Amino acid sequence: MTRKTVDDFHPEVLKLFDQYVHGQVTRRGFLSGAARFAVSVVAAEGLLEALSPNFAQAQQVPPADARIKAEYLEFASPQGNGKVRGYLVKPAKVKGKLPLVLVVHENRGLNPHIEDIARRLALDNFIAFAPDALFNLGGYPGDEEKARELFKQLDQDKVREDFLASVAHLKALPGGNGKVGAVGFCYGGGIANFLATRVPDLGAAVPFYGNQPPAEDVPRIKAPLLIHYAEKDDRINAGWPAYETALKDAGVRYEAHVYAGAQHGFNNDTTPRYDQAAAALAWSRTVAFFNTQLRGAA
Predict the structure, then answer these.
(1) Is the predicted pLDDT of residue 298 greater than 80, yes or no?
(2) Is the pTM above the cut of 0.70?
(3) Per-residue pLDDT, 51
(4) CATH 3.40.50.1820 spans which residues of the chain?
């Protein structure tokens, strides 16, 4: 089957899908709206299926790849929140201590795509840890729609504390060099921004199309930032001018890129919103940035 791209979908269908993914419209609302651009509600169901992730098709690094070592790691959550559980991946062959990267998922928890991202980082010679915010609700359920519904039940204050604890746990991990960076996507991009405001010694933060922190929190950012935005992402981009002003006023080191023609979620290669050129460039910049900030590479 030929893989569909954003060009195969009406722009209004893409907007509806973005609203559906982020809880602004229900599944029924998406189907009703998308039916205007399809021949029937049944055809609209096909649009939704085509826009939804195909994890197997996009996998780049198999879980059993001999070049990596992967395991699930648990530790106590702060303030009696239960436990934090995540996916820890490192290179199979390690020379010296490695920099560490916290990988923060989208609003569906630790799905196969985010695990694949962690494995990719391990192949780039980092120790990567991807927590699952849904763990104390049973973990990622294996279904994206169910995952989004579970996500609505989370106490976000507690979840943020768990991500802060994950940074501290990662920093102290044997085999690491103590330098921790954070990368996140969509919801995770917002968490990467949040972590930068709360972790003074965070080595670097790379938010992909994430919500911006409140302007009053920006002066607390000490980490250098590499910020990725999609051109066709009005919802997230609306917050960028104020964020950029706050970053400049606070003297924060940052680099920002807007990828022409790209949709929100352009780095996620499991869906048609994936933009191969934009994703490749953004990822190469991300790895180079982490190498410089966490490893000291030129």
Answers:
(1) no
(2) yes
(3) 83
(4) 57-295
114 has pLDDT over 50: yes
CATH architecture of 57-295: 3-Layer(aba) Sandwich (3.40)
Between CA 127 and CA 160 the distance in angstroms is 21
DSSP calls for the chain: -PPP-GGGS-HHHHHHHHHHHTTSS-HHHHHHHHGGGSSSHHHHHHHHHHHS--HHHH--S-TT-TTEEEEEEEEEPGGG--EEEEEEEEESS--S-EEEEEEE--TT-S-HHHHHHHHHHHHTT-EEEEE-TTGGGTS--S-HHHHHHHHTTS-HHHHHHHHHHHHHHHHT-TTEEEEEEEEEETHHHHHHHHHHHH-TT--EEEEES-PPPPGGGGGG--S-EEEEEEEE-HHHHTTHHHHHHHHHHHT--EEEEEEEEEETTTT-TTSTT--HHHHHHHHHHHHHHHIIIII---
Please give the average per-residue pLDDT across 183-212, as a whole number.
Answer: 98
Q: How many CB atoms lie within 10 A of CB 228?
A: 27
Instruction: Write phi, then psi, for 122 (nearest 5 degrees).
Output: -65, -35
Radius of gyration of the chain (CA): 19
Q: Taking a C-beta distance cutoff of 8 angstroms, is the pair 87, 109 a contact? A: no
* Predicted pLDDT at 30: 85
What pLDDT does residue 2 have?
Answer: 57
Residue 25 has pLDDT above 60, yes or no: yes
Q: How confident is the prediction for the chain on average, in pLDDT?
A: 92
Mean pLDDT of 52-81: 89
**How far is the first Cα of the chain from the last one, in angstroms, to the nearest whole number?**
43
**pLDDT score of 152 more than 70:** yes
